[in-house]
Amino acid sequence: MPEKDPARVRTNYAVFPKGLDSRLIFAIYCRAFCDTEIDGVKIGRRNFVRGLKVEEGVDLRLKKSLSFCCVASLLVLAALSVYFYAKAARSVPVLNYHQVNDTEQNSMTITTEQFAAQMQYLHDAGYTPITIADMLAAWDDNAPLPKKPVIITFDDGYMDNYRHAFPILQQHNFKATIFVVTDYINTYPNYLTWDDAYAMQQSGLIEFESHTLSHQDLTKTKSEENIRWQLSGARQALAWHLKKDSRFLAYPGGVCDKRSMQLTEDIGYKAAFTVHYGLCDPQSSYRYALPRIPIFGSLTHTLFRFKVRLWFAPVIECLSDTQRILLANDLPFLAKLVPIP
Ligand SMILES: [Zn+2]
């Protein structure tokens, strides 16, 4: 039997650490390109292709592997493109802002000029801001949506939303939702007053919804009674001051867990938002953990970054989910390597 040419023979194994829950996902990808070892069992690429026959190691011929890799990569790329395009077509981007002013320089604040540029871009690119109720009506009752819908939201209820953001929204006749911490209103100088909120509401452009009573992290609040009070108290305050039935919630800190989601539903909210990066998708988004596109978290807000986060939202959502899986599996070093613009 002739000896194998060592230059043409390669053995290539990808070994995944035990305990990594997502290893199977990676393995499916890697099995298409190289041999894989899971929990000590080596799975050959060619055997995977033939029908998952497992054996101890398989030699790969480099040339064949490369051509297979190219074809497989193109197919994966085409499939991903179709998936991302379909997802973007049926989804609604929900932008999430906090502060708009020219005095503070922190990751929650963008300048008035930058906010104006972003709104101008939405206008020029043909986006139509809709309300949260519009989106849910489309999901539940097949109500029509504009061609390029977008939802603009602000969290916390800062005074600059009225002074700086509202005039720009008015210029474009753009609708927006402000999630207010009701105990902060009329209390702290950098937050809205109820009069400001009422004036904005009267314009017909701005809706006010709940960001709870005092911004307690609901995932860390021990008492269920306390969570109920945070959720229902804010609804009562909005009903009292703005004569408004609050139906939507933004979780404080953008975080929720099973208990807080269930209580939010029990209290009577119809939907709730996190700050996890993503598009609101009628097929995959859970109504009490809706994702948004955060327009914060960076000191370098540029119009280009804004456009990238909007254009490539489905791709960035995947990257963000991967980062969260890595962090959940206690792999912060790998999580840092995931590029998120
Ligand atoms: Zn907040």
The overall pLDDT average reads 84
Number of helices: 12
Cα-atom Rg, whole angstroms? 25 Å
Helix content: 40-55%
**What does the largest sheet look like?**
8 strands, parallel
Instruction: Encode the helix/strand succession as letters.
Output: EEHEEHEHEEEHEHEHEHEHEHEEHHH
How many discrete domains?
Answer: 2
Distance between the termini: 56 Å
Say what the CATH topology of the largest domain is. TIM Barrel
Structural class: alpha/beta
The name of the CATH architecture of the largest domain is: Alpha-Beta Barrel
Uncertain regions: pLDDT < 50 for 5+ in a row?
A: 4-23, 47-60
Give the CATH superfamily of the largest domain: Glycoside hydrolase/deacetylase
- How many individual β-strands? 15
Strand content: 15-25%
Report the top-level CATH class of the largest domain.
Answer: Alpha Beta
Spatial shape: globular
Bound molecules: zinc ion
Structure description:
This protein is of the alpha/beta class. The protein has 12 helices and 15 strands. Helix 6 links the parallel strand 10 and strand 11. The protein is globular. The termini are far apart. About 10% of the residues have low confidence. The site of zinc ion has 5 residues, from strand 10.
List the helices and strands and how they pair.
Elements: E1 9-10, E2 13-15, H1 23-31, E3 35-38, E4 41-43, H2 45-51, E5 60-61, H3 62-90, E6 94-97, E7 99-100, E8 109-110, H4 112-124, E9 128-129, H5 132-141, E10 149-156, H6 159-172, E11 176-180, H7 194-202, E12 206-210, H8 224-242, E13 248-250, H9 258-267, E14 271-277, E15 290-294, H10 303-311, H11 313-328, H12 332-337
Helix pairs in contact: 4-6, 8-9
The chain binds zinc ion.
Zinc ion binds at residues 155-156, 211, 215, 252.
